[in-house]
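Justification of resources, computational component.

The compute hours requested in this renewal are based largely on the per-chain cost of generating structure records like the one below. Each record pairs the submitted sequence with a full structure-token output. That output is archived, and it is also reused by downstream analysis tasks.
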Amino acid sequence: MKELSRLGLGINTKKSEVITVEQEEILWSKGLLGESNPQQLLDTLLFLFGLHFALRAAQEHRNLRFGMNTQLSVKYDLEGKKYLQYIEDVSKTNQGGLDYRKVSPKMTRAYENSNPLRCPVRLYEKYIALRPKNGTVDAFYLRPKKMPCSDVWYCDSPVGIHTIQSTVKRLCQSAGIIGNFSNHSLRATAATRLYQAGVDEQLITEKTGHRSNAVRAYKRTSDAQQASMISVTSLLSIVIPRSYILNEFVASSFLAIAIHRFYKLIMLYYEGEDNFLNEMKNEKIQLNRPPFARCCFMCPKINVTRYCTLIDLLLCFGEFRVVPNL
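The structure output for this chain reads:
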């Protein structure tokens, strides 16, 4: 395994990609999501449930039930706002039994929104009204009828798990959206959008049902965030004139250490600006040890002695000088 990794094999894992807001808009605008026919409504509910409830891949969709023992229910909060509540029973992190008796089940909501055409609560109620009136199947997702009636759009038989599993991939391919998209993309999209909106990590874990910091695996950065990170790191411009350098190894080492530590800490910026600034102030580069022991670090803005911090580097905007300590 180590030899394969050294050769670069198996390093890049194939993750389900996040669906951007622009890509979701394409699905709506092209009529792949909506409520005008049985298949479209079914696909839309699966998409919205995966997004609002952060369901795992296909199995948690397949486990959704209808009837007395359903995990879904329409409720009102104390302010009178209507919402659809999902309570999980069995999942990857809560498999039931004695070992999980102290684990609280995931409970999350999807509120009614201002756009009725994309409202998960209204679309859920419409779907329920179009199921068979005397159906015997308790599976939530039912197969669309080939010739639907005005009041019954679905057969009294469940959608197969493989059909459910391929839904998001099929929708994206039909829309011409290129990438590795699957039902799990909806879960990743939910967590990523919450992170990017600045929602507290504890609230995100309540939405996703994670029991540890594994939720951070879904903390995908957007193109805008990547661009902003590059603009910040570009401030780390340490000018080291060749005529002043005693040893090129000293200069390259200084740059390597500074950039490595700064890049490591820049990711803290997305966890909270206060944590980021505190770490920047505390992270120090020792200047009285090799390979810097024989050099003098000069800067007009700060007094550089035994060490400098990464926040010092940013404040100086490229005015550091490394000169021989002759």
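Strands lie at 72-76, 82-87, 107-111, 142-144, 154-158, 284-286, 295-298, 307-309, 321-324. The longest strand covers residues 82-87.
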